């Protein structure tokens, strides 16, 4: 005759022992914990890598804008060939390849005050005029040109003009492109001329209108299988 009571008691004891041993078994815990934590750690890791690359790109853009503005401010007259060299320098500092250079925008301005304020009248007679404008690459600020009236009077004075360098760079994330999309960085530098009161641009145009002789447009072009910066009168 089968002793059901003893059988049931033995089954309960074995089940209890199994549950206790299973609860106390630490094998595989590290693997489970890693499986739970790894995705979060990877997200943080790639996020920090992406942030570092973006910060580096923004810092390079700042250096590039400062460089091209400073170079422009060092001469009384800036020619198209000089601006082409400035563009090479800016792209080198920005550390971009030919494809990435297509996402770079550069604008250079030169301003001077042609009509100073008259302290004896209450009318603001101060007139600011461009003496140079050069553009390269993609459009900045939606096509809106830099407003010289935003420059403080103590910087753009009656006796000394300014040079303005604006740059933009459409940065495409290296790691998380599909997740965060692109980011456009922009920098603007305002500098005083180094060796003269004002700076002017010369596009070597035969146009007799002086206001048309300082507009320069630059593009990336291919000459003899080599990519070069090519500037012309705008």
Describe this structure in words.
There is one protein chain. This protein is an alpha/beta fold and 234 residues long. The chain has one domain (27-233). Helices cover 38% and strands 28% of the residues. The strands form 2 sheets. Strands 5-4-2-3-7-8 form a 6-stranded mixed beta sheet. Strands 1-6 form a two-stranded parallel ribbon. Strand 7 (215-223) and strand 8 (226-233) form a beta hairpin. Helix 2 packs antiparallel against helix 3. The radius of gyration is 33 Å and the shape is elongated.
Q: Tell me the span between the first and last alpha carbons.
A: 110 Å
Run of helices and strands: HHEHHEEEHEEEE
Q: Strand order of the main beta sheet, please?
A: 5-4-2-3-7-8
Quaternary status of these chains? single chain
What does the average pLDDT come to? Answer: 84
The whole-angstrom Rg is 33 Å
Instruction: Tell me the β content.
Output: 25-35%
- Topology, number of strands: 8
